[in-house]
Amino acid sequence: MELSSDPTLLEPQSSSYPTPSAVELASPEDLISEIIQSPEFPTGTGNVSVYVGSESGNVRYIGITNDPERRFLQHLRSGTIRETLDYHVLKDAVGLSRMQARVIEQNLINYYRLNSVNYPIYNKINSIAPRYWNDNGIIFKISIGF
User: Fold this and answer.
1) Where residue 142 falls among pLDDT bands split at 50, 70, 90?
2) How far apart (Å, rounded) are the C-alpha atoms in residues 19 and 73?
3) What is the CATH number of domain 25-127?
């Protein structure tokens, strides 16, 4: 077998695949309408809201609370990287039962954990264990270890 000495064969070829930075992510507000249309989405009402912490317009943290002002202050005084984020409640994710909020939170965690290559999210735990995702309307599923 004879090897070619042509140096152009060793040069990297250009790719037509988008780089991770070229992928535009959906906003949490756009994803909520898809999440709540899932047949498994729980019914009910309550006083829980879903919120996000952002940095330069990129979602970095997703959480739930029944007292947004208190929770945002806790983050801002936490002494962690989360204290640098800008927090806001998602307008279509208020007045929820705790389970509804957890389902939205887990879907958003999964979506951004899977798609935010350049801006990883800071959530460390799941709101709902993966073994319960099918029963609770988790539509954005990932199969990586965390």
Assistant:
1) low
2) 36
3) 3.40.1440.10
pLDDT digit string, tens, across residues 74-113 = 999 999 999 999 999 999 999 999 999 999 999 999 999 8
For residue range 28-53, list pLDDT tens digits in order. Answer: 999 998 899 888 899 999 999 999 99
Q: Are 108 and 62 in contact (CB under 8 A)?
A: yes
Domain positions in the chain? 25-127
Residue 28 exposure: Cα atoms within 13 Å on the Cβ side: 28
